Amino acid sequence: MHSLLTRTTVTAVVAAALVLVPATAHATGAGGVTGPAFYVDGALYRTVATPNDLSRTGAPAHSFDVIYDFGGAQQNVATAAPGDTDYNGGRWMVHALSFPLGYEAAVDAGDADGDGVLDSDAELMTAVDAGTATDTGVVKSFTCPVIPLNG
Hints:
This protein has about 150 residues and is α/β, with parallel strands linked by helices. Helices cover about 25% and strands about 25% of the residues. The chain has a seven-stranded mixed beta sheet.
């Protein structure tokens, strides 16, 4: 009985912790540091998972950058990174995506560099314009850093 209670408690704690991790991150290291988390202009970045929520702050939308959430079909895509003139310092609005004709149709429509994924907001917008990907709106707002995967 003790091991069942312990296992149930551990499962509940892990489930609660996962709710706090931003949609862009899959914690793989200490302190919420992630492996590959999202693309920006074809390059992979990682981040540090943070449990904050900026959705009710009243901050204007232009003070955030966008991360497009592919719902697990591939790594997400962000619109800016450090060094970009329009980068907002790690303030993010996550927009969910849907794929009315399937994810593969979106890749077929938008993958300009032929690498099998949509790895930039330009490629994603090509798929949106083709009607194979749809931005379904903001699902979360938070802060997290953008760290070059190899840096």
